[in-house]
Amino acid sequence: MHKLKLRCPKQSLLTLTRSRQWTDKMVYILSANKYLKYRNGRSRIIYIGTTKKGADRPAASAVNKASEVFYKLHGVKTIEVHIATCGPRQKTPTWKRLESSLLDAFRNRYFELPKYNKVRPKANDGLFGSDALQKLIARFEQK
Length: 143
Description:
The protein has helices at about 55-70, 95-110, 130-140; strands spanning about 25-40, 40-50, 80-85. By secondary structure, the chain is an alpha+beta fold. A hairpin with a 2-residue loop joins strand 1 (about 25-40) and strand 2 (about 40-50). The longest helix has 17 residues, at about 95-110. It is built from 3 helices and 3 strands. The protein has one domain (about 25-140). The chain has a 3-stranded antiparallel beta sheet.
């Protein structure tokens, strides 16, 4: 019987960087290396989510979404995780409001949700400036 060949590439598959922004309550944006078509333009954003079950969620979500994306979307080779945070406000889940505001801003810009978001956001309640939200979304669009 032949022995199996063992391989371990020098380049890492997943790299996590320690950051002060990495908290239990944050929003993360998954972006692909390729621009995806939406109704009103192109963007690299494939998912906008929030940490519901702790700070390990972005890493787990990136792996889960990556396994979906790599098989379904042609040409996507890397997925980046970007963290978006905001200051706290008493008795207000600001990270959930930030997620819904970002989804609403994305929907207003491209007329549809990111490819792997399924739930339609609540209307933007004015907690965040629309210019700041649009500027963050614009960082991922084609120039």
